[in-house]
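Q: What residues go here?
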């Protein structure tokens, strides 16, 4: 039995390669037309073209910030197919499989499963090892992979790479050297920018619910609502900014990195990924009266007991202002 069977994207061979463009992609293009002002790519020169089916294409690991549950990866897949003839494999958490049909559909669309409901530390470590080996196998065979820089979306817009993601990615590989393992993955940070976040009011609502009840947790129905809201909601101008592989940074700073222990190296790698993402955020106007009116309209959509409007408005401001603050810090 294939050891990757419980997480792998379905392998449908040449047939799916021939039919996915006329069947899957028109739906995504229609969604772009209905819910965005534009979807653009910047920094495409940092991504190597794939001349399908040969020569062998060097795989990329596109590590990105996370704005929308479904469309972050879907839009990027369409734009990369159009710009560079690349269809990345995409990681999706099994916590999102709220309906029976979601899992087979997303596996058909080149999604592999990130298992997030492990029972106990031993099972969690085994699943992380399996995921790490699967991602490395794709890269080694010249395939590209999309993965978010953290588990779940940053509710406050403060995008930070979780060290646990880098630790998971480096669990596999024959080399015992951390820096060599990272080089082999060819990590290319990508900055995803939405002018408007369709789920902004849901995120603010979650933050008050957690504040008022420390035991509150999202249900699968909440995840499905967030998915549907993200798909149907207006996003304004969307920009994907691709940045160079961090391998060049590792080469330039290897002497300093060699003086660090493993955890310090991982922290330094996370900071570099964050720097490349933050420095390439798009500049949107967050100070105009029109934008303030937009936030008030989002506040009006929140319907919960003991609605704290001052707290909620502060959180809405925070999730849009944090990218601006992080970009300014990165450029300095």
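A:
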């Amino acid at each position: 039995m294939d050891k990757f069977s419980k997480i792998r994207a379905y392998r449908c061979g040449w047939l799916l390669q021939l039919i996915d463009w006329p069947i899957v992609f028109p739906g995504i293009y229609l969604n772009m037309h209905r819910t965005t002002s534009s979807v653009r790519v910047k920094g495409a020169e940092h991504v190597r073209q794939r001349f399908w089916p040969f020569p062998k294409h060097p795989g990329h690991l596109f590590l990105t910030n996370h704005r929308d549950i479904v469309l972050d990866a879907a839009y990027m897949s369409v734009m990369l197919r159009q710009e560079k003839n690349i269809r990345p494999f995409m990681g999706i958490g099994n916590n999102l499989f709220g309906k029976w049909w979601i899992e087979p559909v997303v596996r058909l669309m080149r999604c592999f499963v990130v298992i997030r409901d492990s029972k106990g530390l031993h099972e969690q470590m085994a699943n992380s090892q399996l995921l790490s080996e699967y991602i490395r196998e794709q890269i080694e065979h010249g395939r590209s992979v999309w993965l978010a820089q953290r588990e779940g979306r940053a509710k406050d817009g403060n995008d930070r790479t979780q060290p646990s993601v880098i630790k998971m990615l480096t669990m596999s590989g024959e080399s015992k050297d951390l820096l060599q393992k990272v080089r082999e993955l060819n990590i290319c940070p990508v900055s995803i920018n939405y002018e408007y976040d369709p789920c902004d009011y849901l995120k603010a609502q979650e933050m008050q619910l957690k504040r008022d009840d420390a035991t509150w947790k999202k249900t699968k129905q909440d995840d499905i609502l967030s998915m549907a809201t993200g798909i149907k909601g207006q996003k304004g101008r969307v920009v994907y900014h691709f940045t160079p592989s961090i391998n060049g940074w590792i080469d330039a700073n290897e002497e300093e990195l060699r003086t660090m222990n493993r955890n310090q190296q991982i922290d330094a790698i996370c900071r570099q990924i964050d720097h490349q993402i933050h420095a390439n955020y798009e500049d949107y106007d967050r100070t105009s009266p029109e934008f303030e009116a937009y936030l008030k309209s989002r506040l009006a959509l929140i319907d919960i007991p003991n609605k704290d409007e001052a707290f909620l408005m502060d959180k809405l401001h925070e999730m849009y202002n944090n990218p601006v603050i992080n970009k300014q810090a990165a450029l300095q």
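A: Context that may help when evaluating the design: The beta strands are 36-42, 61-64, 89-93, 111-114, 145-148, 187-194, 236-242. Residues 13-199+235-284 form a domain with the Glycerol-3-phosphate (1)-acyltransferase fold (CATH 3.40.1130).
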